[in-house]
Fold this protein.
Amino acid sequence: MSDLFKTAYPYCFITMARSVAPDMRKKVLAMYISTYMAKYEPHLEVVKIEGKYAICRLKSK
């Protein structure tokens, strides 16, 4: 059994990230997603971002 979870994030984050300079888009999208996950899924930590999903794992105690 894997300890990773595939979690969707709001699609509007992709649209908002496209409004910044091309070289900063990946960093801004990662910031949006990590902030969103900290607020709405505080028991998960983001491992990586794959397309429209954040791959997360449970935070260790």
User: Anything to note?
Assistant: The two ends are 20 Å apart (CA to CA). The chain has two helices and three strands. The beta strands are 4-8, 44-50, 53-58. Residues 17 and 25 are 5 Å apart (CA to CA).
